[in-house]
Amino acid sequence: MPVFSPSDPSGHALAPLECARLPPDLDGRHGLNRAIGVRAQIAADHDIDAIKAWLARFVESQATFDSYRKEAERLLLWAAVELGKPLSSLTHEDILAYQRFLADPQPAARWVMRGRKVARAEPDWRPFAGPLSPASRRQAFVILNTLFAWLVTAGYLAGNPLSLSRQRARKAKPRVTRYLEDDLWRALKHSVEAMPRNTAREQEHHARVRWLISLLYLMGLRISELVGNPMGGFFKRRDRDGRERWWLAITGKGNKERLLPATAELMAELARYRQHYDLPALPYPHEPTPLLLPIGGLRRPMTRGGVHLIVKQVFENAIDHLTSSGEPRERAAERLRQASAHWLRHTAGSHMMDGHVDLRYVRDNLGHESISTTSQYLHADDDDRHRATESGLKMNW
Known about the structure:
This protein is mostly helical. The protein has helices at about 45-55, 60-85, 90-105, 110, 135-155, 180-195, 200-220, 225, 265-275, 305-320, 325-340, 340-355, 360-365, 380-390, and strands at about 235-240, 245-250, 255-260.
C-alpha cells in the first residue's frame, strides 16, 4: 500500500505526510463527506492537498506547524491503514474509535517509534513515541477540530465529524503545578555546578548548560524562542534615573515581539558564556550569533529537539543531588523525571510572585500579553519592570 515506506514492503513502516501516496479509493477524491454543490475556496482535489492547504497558514510558526502536521498526519494514516477509509469519509463513530486508538496505538510495530526519536525521512520513523496521555489526547482533538472546521469553511468537506462531540463546560484554569519546588531547584543548580570540567569539551558543555538554564529561568523563555533569536537582540538604554539597563528584544509565540529585562546577573552569565568562544563580553547590535551554540564552536542555531534533550538530562542529573531520603526523595525524583523546559518558565513566574514582583510585570516578562513598544519608546513602567525583575528574580549560582 503506498502509505507505507517503499523501503519496507512488509507494511510496518509508514510514510510521513510529505511522502505519503494514497490510491484513488483512499485519497479522498470521492470521500463520503466531500461538499457537493458548494464552490470550494481551495484548489485541493484530495485529502493530502487539503491538509497541506490548511497547514500553509502556520508556516510562520515552526512549532505550531509541526504540532498541527503531526496530528493531521496521524489521523490520515490511521484512517487509511486501520479503517481503509479516506479522511474525508470519516464519521463521528470513527472519531470515537480513533480516540481509543490514541490511548494505545496498536500494532506497536507499525505505529510506535522504537528507541530514540529519528528523522522523518528515516525508515524507522513512526507517527507515535508511545500512548498519548489524556492531556495530549485532548490537545490532539482540539487541533483536529480546527482542521475539520476549516475544511468545512473552505468548502472541501460537508460537515465536521467532531462537532457532535460532547461540549464540556469551560472550567477555571487550575493553579500552575508544573514548577520546581525549592528543593528541586537547588538540586538542579547543584547538579549543573557538579558537572565534570576536566576536558575542553566538558568545560564548553558545562558553560552551555549553565547559560541555557540561566536563559530559561531569568528570561522565562520558551525553547522555540531560545533557538529562534540571536544574541544581537540584546541592547541597553538609559532609564529615567540615568542608569544604563540591558534588555533583550525577542520574537516569540505568534511572531510577536516583546522586550525582556536582562538583569546584571544575566549579562554576567552571557559574558561568561561568550568567553568560551573568544567573543567580546557583550554582543554588538544585530549580531547574528545564536543565543545557544552547539558544542564545537559552530555558529549555527541548535534545534528545539537538541535543547529539549539537554534539559531532560539536566533534570535526570539533578535526581542524584536530592538531599531528601526515603519516600520524599522518590516523590521528588518522580517530579524531576516529569519536568520539562517549560517548568523553568513556570518556576521563574512562581519566584517572581514570591519576590513580590508586580503581577503586570510577571505577565509582560512571560509574554502572556504582547508589547507594541520598541526600544526607543521605553516608558517609566518598563523601567519599574526592570528594577522589580532585577530584585525579585536571581539565579544565585
